[in-house]
Design goal:
The complex is a heterodimer. By secondary structure, chain A is an alpha+beta fold. Chain A folds into two domains: 102 residues, no CATH class; 237 residues, Bira Bifunctional Protein, Domain 2 (BirA Bifunctional Protein, domain 2, 2-Layer Sandwich), CATH 3.30.930.10. Chain A is 38% helix and 18% strand. A seven-stranded mixed beta sheet of chain A has the order 1-5-6-10-9-8-7, sandwiched between helices. In chain A, a hairpin with a 2-residue loop joins strand 7 and strand 8. In chain A, helix 3 packs antiparallel against helix 4. Chain B is of the alpha+beta class. Chain B folds into five domains: 77 residues, Phenylalanyl-tRNA Synthetase, Chain B, domain 1; 193 residues, 3-Layer(bba) Sandwich (Phenylalanyl-tRNA Synthetase, Chain B, domain 3), CATH 3.50.40; 73 residues, 2-Layer Sandwich (Phenylalanyl-tRNA Synthetase, Chain B, domain 1); 215 residues, BirA Bifunctional Protein, domain 2, CATH 3.30.930.10; 88 residues, Alpha-Beta Plaits (2-Layer Sandwich). Chain B is 28% helix and 26% strand. Chain B contains 19 helices and 33 strands. In chain B, the strands form nine sheets. In chain B, strands 18-22-23-29-28-27-26 form a seven-stranded mixed beta sheet, sandwiched between helices. Chain B has a five-stranded mixed beta sheet with strand order 4-7-10-11-12. Chain B is elongated. Classes of the chains: A alpha+beta, B alpha+beta. Chains A and B meet through helix 4, helix 5, helix 6, strand 1 and strand 3 of A and helix 6, helix 9, helix 11, helix 12 and strand 18 of B. Zinc ion binds next to loops of chain A.
């Protein structure tokens, strides 16, 4: 006869056996192995008590009986747990993965399908706290989904821009989307019939709309420059603002054009504001929005409201300046329009154009988002497909 | 503007290769958008590498819409002299054709030069035709081609009239007469307005000034004598006419940006030289130059110190006059100002963009080189203002709504009329666009919901079932103008499905474990977002059926009290969207209910507290006593009425009343509903006794019985 197992050996063997239980049949088999009248391990242990020395008999008897109770409790608890799960398990077990209701909704469907195969196993739900009887969990099943929404990617970029400029001491200001001709054009050195008005194909209202100012709105703003004019009309310099917002152009939608898009314009007016400050600020902005090694290049351009004007290019985010199809092999991407505020604009708001200088810039948020997230088609931003929206950071 | 480099070389030396030239022009503000191979120009072999450069000319530089204009820049960049193309010497003037600028036309036409020529109309020589084609102009015949050639080369538009088809041997520059028409060269008969300038013969209009000539005096194979026009037309007049006629030409494009008022005679002399060169004609007499009030050139003071103040760099004082002279400006040195030089700079006629000092600073910056500008950072002289409340509020809204499971949509501000129409409140009207891109974008959105419904439909059609979207944006209506709003749409299940949730419900047309989202899921979102903005909303049944875009009886008006306002402020509405509204936008059948809410953010702001003035209260030190109460009342009685009755009776120790159950059916009388409330009592200064709560509960019971005929369960 093999030497008798100790109480601890039997307890360990039972714990191991319980861990492997996957069905009611397994549970019955485990019971027989330990509590069976003939070959049960605990039964054998109890029998051995009689053969122990008188010194050991009392203690061994107490331990063996305690173990027997523990095992009985554990088996009962497990039986209860599996009974409680049975209706759910039976109900779900009839579903094939393809019938799963959530199958169309991305990964959740796949997870549910993966779970269905184990429903006839003893579930861990409702298991009592006793260490030996704690039921085994299938930890590979998915957790309860916490439903959170996502910011729109254009908002994510816009807020990032706002944060960068707030950090540089700029104030964020806003204004109306329905504008009057004066604030959209005239105050910006674009009198009626100015050919530069063609650069921004404008959408006009059928009838003037009342606004909060004394000028009725007649058009959809083509840029947020009107916000800057309004700010200067009501604030003394220095001015250090950015004006983000939606703007409208009469552009037929295509890969790179949308008749509505988002823009941020910046304006700095103070004594001794220079074009080199403009370059330094935009460099800082683009390096933070993209990567610290982003390079910035200015090229002469024309806008009626700035002079000198510059188109701003940054090193291509796709090829890091080596040249690729996106940057047309130049290594540079045009991202911004900018320049020194035209003295006529300062004069239109009653500022002293001799004492003050200023600079302004304008950038399409959509364009930056396209470059930042490599979105192929600007129109995708306005379809609001959740499968796109959910890819962006919260 | 397409520039043939070999043509350019006739006027200025190009000491670099094509790529370097393109790069230099781009760096000076003339973006080369493409470099195309040059066609062969028969009889005019290129003296070096050739190509056609396609240049983007900004609207302020019409002088560069010509070979000469680009040549001037190239001359300045490489410090080379210009070589003028040959000009004919004008013989003595003759009076065979009388030119009159009528007084009413003088403002729009301050200068009109004309001359006559005997011509032999034939195709142009191959070299001229090839150059025109390289520049994108179709060759027609020698005479017309010469006028176009001059325009491309010198930048000045010209026109040729068939002299024998002009009535009365005269040209009159005058406004169009009432109801006057002209058949233009493109064959269209155009109705003219009295603010349009025409060139007429003794009887009628023969050309729209600066825009297009008339077909009736067109140069044809039969033409023997021509009257050539080289004039200067006012930019605004030309632009207005061109726009009104929807007719843009090479000539109108140049005139509306600004032609060189000094150029007409020069262009005429060049035209005669070319007519002679190609054997197409010879002048009959000289050039009649009608220029009654010659313009004085613009003179501008330029200070070296100002250049530095604007650009932030120290440009060498010697560089300034040198570069401006190379560009054709006349320079006089002025007195030093504060130890720095100044100049008086006179602009040549072609520089219509130069009016003031800053225009010259731009020239200095361009030729000094933008690439040489260093990067500096502007000092902050004053603490920046605190972020605007509106901005903070929107960020908070986004945080709350995304945390509540809604994703942000951004939809177009203009929509289809059919999409907007159902959301127009009674008595209000849609705001229409005068020139919409298409019917899809014809009206400004009266609410955010039409765009959100479309976005929801878009996602639903792509197989999504659980859809929660919100948008923060502006709405437009004739009555309210432009207002900020926030809107939410909810469709699909109330919560994400989980394998561990046993109960099964029906959502839409497919089985699910969780119930479909209902009005109260939406109400919870609305309550949460308003709470974040410091607003305690009250939901009330709307008077009547409620907004037409909701199912009758299944919508609420969301209200709140506003500081300093006696009545409740209406913030907006929430409810179940009328199925027909979504169906009309293409929502597939069987999609289930859509719940939607839209709030006016201006009203929310009025009702909101100042979040920055929050004063914390210490956590309660004494225990609360909780009592549940279940009553049966009329089915139509709103829970809010019961709540108000309880509140009215209870002392201040009642800190919360919350409905936690509602039941209709077996065990409850016909037309009755069972409502259960949980009441929490607590005092801040001592522990409440059971006895006093018991007393309060009895009083509440009495009040509910008398006010609402409630029975206790
Ligand atoms: Zn690249």
């Amino acid at each position: 006869m093999a030497p008798l197992a100790t109480v601890e050996d039997v307890r360990a063997a039972f714990a191991a056996g319980l861990r492997d239980v996957a069905s009611p049949a397994d549970l019955q088999e485990l019971r027989n192995r330990f509590l069976g009248r003939k070959r049960g391990a605990v039964t054998a242990l109890l029998r051995s008590v009689a053969e122990a020395s008188p010194d050991e008999r009392r203690e061994l008897g107490r331990q063996a009986n305690a173990l027997k109770q523990e095992i009985e409790q554990a088996l009962a608890a497990r039986r209860e747990a599996s009974a409680a799960d049975a209706p759910t398990a039976g109900d779900d077990g009839r579903h094939s993965p393809t019938e799963k209701p959530a199958a169309a909704e991305g990964s959740a469907g796949a997870e549910v399908a993966r779970g269905s195969g184990v429903h006839d196993r003893i579930s861990g739900r409702g298991a009592p706290a006793a260490p030996l009887s704690s039921a085994v969990l299938d930890v590979t099943l998915p957790g309860r989904e916490v439903r959170v929404g996502h910011r729109h990617p254009l908002t994510a970029v816009r807020e990032e821009i706002e944060e960068i400029f707030t950090g540089l001491g700029f104030e964020v200001v806003e204004g109306p989307e329905v504008e009057d001709d004066y604030h959209n054009f005239e105050a910006l050195n674009m009198p009626p019939e100015h050919p530069a008005r063609d650069m921004q194909d404008t959408l006009y209202l059928d009838a003037p709309l009342r606004t909060r100012s004394d000028r009725p709105g007649t058009l959809l703003r083509t840029h947020t420059s009107g916000v800057q004019i309004r700010y200067m009309e009501t604030h003394e310099p220095p001015v250090r603002i950015i004006a983000p917002g939606v703007v409208y152009r009469r552009d037929t939608p295509d890969l790179t054009h949308s008749p509505m898009f988002q823009q941020v314009e910046g304006l700095l007016v103070d004594e001794d504001v220079t074009m080199t400050d403009l370059k330094g600020t935009l460099e800082c902005f683009l390096q933070r929005l993209f990567t610290p090694d982003t390079q910035v290049m200015f090229r002469p351009s024309f806008f009626p409201y700035t002079e000198p004007s510059a188109e701003v290019f940054m090193s291509c985010v796709f090829c890091r300046g080596d040249g690729c199809a996106v940057c047309k092999r130049t290594g540079w991407l045009e991202v911004l329009g900018s320049g020194m505020v035209h003295p006529a604009v300062l004069e239109a708001v009653g500022y002293d154009s001799e004492r003050l200088t200023g600079w302004a810039f304008g950038v399409g948020i959509d364009r930056l988002a396209i470059l930042k997230y490599r979105v192929q088609d600007i129109r995708a931003f306005y379809e609001n497909d959740l499968q796109l929206l959910e890819q962006f950071p919260l | 503007m397409r520039i043939l480099v070999s043509w350019l070389r006739e006027i200025v030396p190009v000491p670099v290769g094509i790529d370097d030239l393109a790069e230099a022009l781009t760096r000076h503000g003339f973006e080369v958008s493409s470099v195309d191979p040059a066609p062969e120009i028969p009889g005019r072999p290129a003296a070096g590498p050739d190509a056609v450069l396609d240049l983007e000319i900004t609207t302020n530089r019409p002088d560069c819409l010509s070979v000469l204009g680009i040549a001037r820049e190239v001359a300045a960049i490489y410090a080379n002299p210009l070589r003028w193309p040959p000009l004919a010497e004008p013989p003595a003037a003759n009076a065979e054709v009388a030119v009159t600028i009528e007084e009413a036309g003088a403002a729009a036409c301050p200068r009109y030069a004309s001359s006559l020529a005997d011509v032999r109309v034939a195709p142009s020589p191959a070299w001229m035709a090839a150059r025109l084609e390289a520049a994108g102009v179709r060759p027609i015949n020698g005479v017309v081609d010469v006028t176009n050639y001059v325009m491309l080369e010198l930048g000045h538009p010209m026109h040729a009239f068939d002299l024998d088809r002009l009535a009365g041997a005269e040209l009159r520059v005058r406004p169009a007469r009432p109801a006057e028409t002209v058949r233009t060269l493109d064959g269209e008969t155009r109705a003219l307005g009295d603010d349009m300038l025409v060139i007429a013969d003794a009887e009628r209009a023969q050309a729209v000034a600066g825009v297009m000539g008339g077909a009736d005096s067109e140069v044809t194979g039969a033409t023997a004598r021509v009257a050539l026009e080289s004039a200067w037309f006012d930019p605004i007049s030309v632009r207005r006419t061109s726009r009104r006629l929807a007719l843009s030409t090479d000539a109108s494009y140049r005139f509306e940006r600004g032609a060189d008022i000094d150029a007409p005679v020069r262009a005429m002399r060049r035209a005669h030289a070319l007519l002679a060169e190609i054997g197409a004609g010879a002048p009959r007499g000289g050039i009649a130059d009608c220029y009654p009030a010659p313009r004085t050139p613009t003179t501008v003071a330029l200070r070296h110190a100002r250049i530095g103040r604007v650009l932030g760099i120290d440009v060498a004082p010697d560089f300034v006059p040198v570069i401006l002279e190379r560009l054709g400006f006349r320079i006089e040195t002025g007195p030093d100002e504060a130890g720095a030089p100044t100049w008086r700079v006179t602009a040549p006629g072609h520089r219509v963009d130069v009016h003031r000092e800053i225009d010259l600073i731009e020239e200095v910056a361009r030729h000094h080189g933008y690439h040489r500008l260093p990067s500096t950072f502007p000092p902050l002289r004053r603490p920046p203002a605190a972020p605007a409340d509106s901005l903070e509020r929107r960020r908070l809204l986004r945080r709350v709504l995304t945390a509540g499971g809604c994703s942000e949509a951004i939809t177009y501000g203009f929509i289809e009329e059919a999409a907007g129409r159902p959301f127009v409140a009674g008595g209000d009207e849609l705001v229409r666009l005068a020139n919409p891109l298409s019917e899809t974008y014809a009206v400004l959105r009266p609410a955010l919901l039409p765009g959100l419904v479309d976005a929801l439909v878009y996602n639903r059609r792509r197989g999504r079932r659980d859809i929660r979207l919100f948008e923060i944006g502006r709405r437009f209506s004739a009555a309210a103008g432009e207002t900020p709003g926030v809107a939410v749409v909810v469709a699909g299940s109330a919560a994400p499905e989980h394998w561990g949730d046993g109960q099964r419900w029906r959502t839409g047309d497919r089985g699910g474990r969780v119930p479909p989202a209902d009005f109260y899921d939406l109400a919870g979102i609305v309550e949460r977002l308003l709470d974040a903005l410091g607003v305690a909303p009250a939901f009330a049944a709307p008077a009547g059926a409620g907004p037409a875009w909701f199912v009758p009886g299944r919508s609420a008006v969301v209200q709140a009290s506003a500081p300093g306002e006696g009545t409740l402020v209406t913030l907006g509405h929430a409810g179940q969207l009328e199925p027909a509204v979504a169906a009309a936008r293409g929502l597939p059948a069987g999609s289930g209910a859509i719940h939607a809410a839209e709030l006016d953010l201006d009203a929310v702001v009025r009702a909101g507290g100042d979040r920055r003035r929050l004063v914390a209260s210490p956590p309660p030190r004494f225990p609360a006593i909780v009592r549940d109460i279940a009553i049966a009342v009329e089915r139509t009685l709103p829970a809010a009425a019961v709540r108000e009755t309880i509140r009215a009776v209870a002392p201040d120790s009642l800190v919360a009343v919350r409905a936690f159950d509602r039941y209709e059916g077996p065990g409850i009388g016909e037309g009755q509903v069972s409502l259960a409330f949980r009441l929490t009592f607590r005092r801040g200064d001592r522990t409440l006794t059971d006895a006093e709560v018991q007393r309060t509960m009895r009083e509440i019971g009495t009040a509910l019985r008398t006010t609402h005929q409630a029975t206790f369960r």
